[in-house]
UniProtKB/TrEMBL annotation:
Record organism: Petromyzon marinus (Sea lamprey)
Protein name: Cystic fibrosis transmembrane conductance regulator
Residue span, ABC transporter domain: 274-507
Family: Belongs to the ABC transporter superfamily. ABCC family. CFTR transporter (TC 3.A.1.202) subfamily.
InterPro entries: AAA+_ATPase (IPR003593), ABC1_TM_dom (IPR011527), ABC1_TM_sf (IPR036640), ABC_transporter-like_ATP-bd (IPR003439), ABC_transporter_C-like (IPR050173), CFTR/ABCC7 (IPR009147), P-loop_NTPase (IPR027417)
UniProt-listed Pfam families: ABC_membrane, ABC_tran
EC number: 5.6.1.6
The keyword Transport appears for this protein: yes
Main location: membrane
Record's keyword terms, sorted: ATP-binding, Chloride, Chloride channel, Endoplasmic reticulum, Endosome, Glycoprotein, Ion channel, Ion transport, Isomerase, Membrane, Nucleotide-binding, Phosphoprotein, Repeat, Transmembrane, Transmembrane helix, Transport
SUPFAM superfamilies associated with the record: ABC transporter transmembrane region, P-loop containing nucleoside triphosphate hydrolases
């Protein structure tokens, strides 16, 4: 008499024990997956080249780190949990109905196959609609970020209505794609309802028409068949949601897809020998090449000038050396290829002074020494070398003054000299100068170049400069034209071969007077020119101070 009672008690106890274990295993797996995915995305973003941020809108990145990560953290584990539970419930109910009335198998198998074929057909369209809906959010996030950044300007020019209309247009596009998504989902659900209506009808006619089944068996079969309809529809909808959430997880995982880090030797780079072999670059796979087959070799302590008209590719070449662009070819420092080194480690071999200096929001000390590796004595020594002690001491708080909005309290010349202080504190083996004196007055420019010649004499230097005086002491000249190497060699050799180079040199006697007889003669000639320039600069600076 207690046989069935024991069975029900055993099932209830098993459910009480196994259900928490199932939930704990699922939550533990979800936490590990979420942690791995989030860390991979953040690592990929931090190591991404600058071209990635030019191609992807801020809204795209925000969408991946907010909506897609939230889906994989919160909704996806619960959806998978419900999906497997509902699938087992439907499978159990269909098995019971088929066991009680075997003739229903004639209907169950064809209708089950029809459901799977319909689901497969629908998913091809569903994935595209889900992707469209996700991408339609990117302009909304991007517009919100841009509006918040330029809120003062928008209000100053009374452009509130214009930006509000843009937001409404982006929102309408997202609503339209969301409507298509819901319409397709309702189309699928209606056909699933039709299939299960046929299933219930078939079970009813078979139960009544076939003799030999008791009233209790028929009642149980019909009850389960009716419950299957709602449960299976729920299971199908959940499986569709899981597919959509998994696609969001795939989108997030794309941002964490692999880069391989090979740590270089501890003393790398020891010399600063820079070698570029067949370097080419284009902004997209279908775009024309901006740089094509650039090759040069700069030994330790040498200085190379990069010349060319506007748009020739000078700044792009320096950006490629810093891995800010996806390039073809080889770039090596001391024999180690850029492909085998993490971008952060690779860039630590360079110091850069550009035409436009970026000032971080923070203290002056943090701007000069972001990693906190130098003490106050070393910082003040570098400031003295750059001639900025009076400027820094005049600031309220000195090194602890807070710089905001790009350091508007400083002039462009002072920002350039602060960039020079950064380079003095972190003396890398290779120094890149991208027209650092273009926006400077003559005195500040001469001061900067004199400090560079004195303090970085053992470093490898690449300079892209419009002032021809800055290239008189260069060991090599690289002339670019339309992204290709026009001439490459010593100044005297390039001067004889290249008419383009002679256009950049107004005082041709500076190079004609020093023919290439030997390396010793060239070295003495360069030192003689540099000494004359330095003496002249000292006189000009002294007169200006007086």
């Amino acid at each position: 008499n207690y046989y069935y009672f024991y069975i029900y008690v055993g099932l209830a106890d098993s459910f009480f024990v196994l259900d928490p274990i199932r939930g704990l295993l699922l939550i533990h797996s979800a936490i590990r997956v979420s942690d791995t995915l989030s860390r991979g995305m953040l690592r990929a973003i931090l190591h991404a080249p600058a071209s990635f941020f030019l191609e992807k809108q801020p809204g795209y990145i925000i969408n991946r780190f907010s909506k897609d990560v939230a889906i994989t953290d919160d909704q996806l584990p619960l959806a998978i949990f419900d999906y497997f539970q509902l699938f087992l419930i439907v499978l159990g109910a269909v098995t019971v109905v088929s066991a009680m009335i075997p003739w229903t198998m004639l209907v169950t198998l064809p209708l089950g196959i029809s459901c799977m074929v319909l689901r497969h057909y629908f998913l091809r369209t569903f994935r595209q609609l889900k992707q469209m809906e996700s991408e339609a959010k990117n302009p909304i996030f991007a517009h919100i970020v841009a509006t918040l950044k330029g809120l003062w300007t928008i209000r100053a020019f009374s452009r509130d209505d214009y930006f509000e209309n843009i937001f409404h247009q982006a929102l309408d596009i997202h609503t339209a794609t969301w409507f298509l998504y819901l319409s397709a989902l309702r189309w699928f659900q209606m056909r699933i309802d039709i299939i299960f209506t046929l299933f219930i009808t078939a079970v009813t006619f078979i139960s009544v028409g076939v003799k030999g089944y008791s009233e209790g068996s028929i009642a149980i079969a019909l009850t389960l068949a009716m419950n299957i309809m709602s449960t299976f529809q729920w299971a199908i909808n959940t499986s569709i949601e899981v597919e959509g959430m998994v696609s969001a997880g795939h989108s997030a995982a794309e941002e964490s897809s692999g880069f391989v880090v090979t740590p270089p030797p501890p003393d790398w780079p020891s010399a600063g020998h820079l070698e570029v072999v067949n370097l080419s670059m284009r902004h997209s796979p279908t775009a024309p090449y901006v740089l094509q087959n650039i090759s040069f070799n700069v030994q330790q302590g040498q200085k190379m000038a990069i010349l060319g008209r506007t748009g020739a590719g000078k700044s792009t070449l320096l950006a490629c050396l810093l891995l800010q662009r996806d390039v073809e070819g080889e770039v090596r420092i001391d024999g180690l290829s850029a492909r085998n080194v993490a971008p952060y480690t690779w860039r630590s071999a360079f110091q850069v002074i550009t035409q436009k200096i970026f000032i971080f929001t923070g203290t002056l000390r943090k701007n000069l020494d972001p990693y906190g590796r130098c003490n106050d004595e070393e910082i003040w020594k570098a400031i003295d070398l750059a001639g900025l002690r009076d400027v820094v001491e005049a600031l309220p708080g000195g090194l602890d003054v807070m710089l905001v909005e790009g350091g508007w309290v400083l002039s462009e010349g002072q920002k350039q000299l602060l960039s020079l202080v950064r380079c003095l504190l972190y003396k890398a083996r290779i120094l890149l100068l991208d027209e650092p004196t273009a926006n400077l007055d003559q005195i500040t420019a001469q001061t900067m170049m004199r400090i560079i010649r004195k303090e970085f004499k053992d470093c490898t230097i690449l300079v892209s400069e419009h002032r021809i005086r800055a290239i008189y002491d260069c060991n090599q000249i690289l002339v670019l034209e339309d992204g290709k190497v026009r001439e490459y060699g010593t100044a005297q050799v390039v001067f004889k071969k290249s008419a383009l180079f002679r256009e950049f040199v107004p005082d041709t006697g500076s190079f004609r007077g020093h023919p290439v007889r030997s390396s010793m003669t060239l070295r003495h000639s360069i030192k003689h020119i540099s000494l004359q320039e330095e003496l002249a600069e000292d006189d000009i600076i002294q007169e200006t101070r007086l």
